[in-house]
Amino acid sequence: MLELISDYMRDERSRHLLNELTQKTFGFDFEGWVTDGYFEGDYIPYSFVEDGVMISNVSANRMQFIQKEQIRNYIQIGTVMTDVDYRKQGLAAQLMKHVIETYENNCDGIYLFGDLGALEFYKKMGFSVENQYRYYLKDEFLNIEKAECRFMPIKDQGEALRQKYLDYVRHSARHSSFEQVNKYGLQMFYTSGLDSVYYAEDIDCFIVKEQDDCTVIGSVLSKERIPLIAILRRIDVDNRCRLGFVPFDEDRNLCVSEEYDGGDDYRLFYRGAGLESIERDKLFFPDLSHA
Fold first, then answer.
1. How confident is the model over 9-17, as a mean pLDDT?
2. Are residues 189 and 73 in the same domain?
3. pTM here?
4. How many Å apart are CA 49 and CA 56, to the nearest integer?
């Protein structure tokens, strides 16, 4: 018998079923994220279970942003998956419709990052496609005079610094004109191992920094707002540097913006006129806000 279950992340048995399907589909699970205390209730799965096996899931993520000085409450849909033996039966579509009906009149918009192989599916579900804008530092600001103190990795630097990072994830000053407010759960999903977290003592600031095809500054965390130029004086960049967030207007003179459609990875789908502003205002959902 097919059963719909939801909002069960603190129920160990049901969560393990979700983990099994997630591992089969995407190769990761949520167990450590929950048991280590990073889950705070904003990730809400909606799942079909049959004969004790989870066969399909669509999750709603409550996302609160400060967007151009206004609070916006969005729902990000993620972890859309169906067991290979149960596909092409419309299960994910049923769950998607249920999630849309549950939230559409109680938020400022619904969005998701859709796999390229599912473009027509999301269009049939009433979603539209739009582009975002990414921000790269201008070359002349990459080789500026450097400060004596640099950002240093914090992994293996002791529990006190780790706890300080956790506190700053919760209570940082804003460093973006489009910043997620309830970012603790997702940011810790990405950074709990601390491999990409760095700290500069003289300005009491953490950054999340990774090296992809260029240097990516994914997040800036400090109790007082730090100018972007001060961050650049404390990191070394070999070639290009991208921000994983939208800079404040006063820092945009340091950057060039480039339209981004998701490349070979995804497309941004949305429902709700409020989300049309993402492309119009040259915004970008922060890297660490992707669920």
1. 96
2. no
3. 0.94
4. 7
